[in-house]
Fold this protein.
Amino acid sequence: MRISDVLQSKSLRDVVTIRPDAGVRELLATLAENNIGAVVVSADGTSLDGIVSERDVVRTLHSDGTVINAVVSSIMTPQVKTCSPEDELDVVMQIMTDGRFRHIPVISDGQVVGIVSIGDMVKQKIDQLQFERDQLDSYVHQG
């Protein structure tokens, strides 16, 4: 199974982005309005400048209560692990588990084409296992 399979199964396929110079208040509104946990940081909407998550806000808020007045570039992760649509799901899940992060941008031809969460991948794995179970059950019980 590949990352492209996960992208195809997602109900929200649009990549939500935010500019590096946007305010943290705008970031929080974007996260809440889209019911997501991370946003791709992009100056032009297609390139990858970084990623910023709810955790980034919370961790910075813990040490700096004025972060709400800051810009996204001051709290984002600039060195971002990425994957491609052709990457194997299990490999990407292991990278995310080892790196202890929950969202990974999907890059194709130098542009952001999606973002997947560990939850998206777990759902895809469960769906695959249920399909295989149903196929085996059908095979065992056929007359």
Notes: The domain at 3-141 is CATH 3.10.580.10 (CBS-domain). The chain has a mean pLDDT of 92. Strands lie at 17-18, 38-41, 50-53, 103-108, 111-117. The radius of gyration is 18 Å.
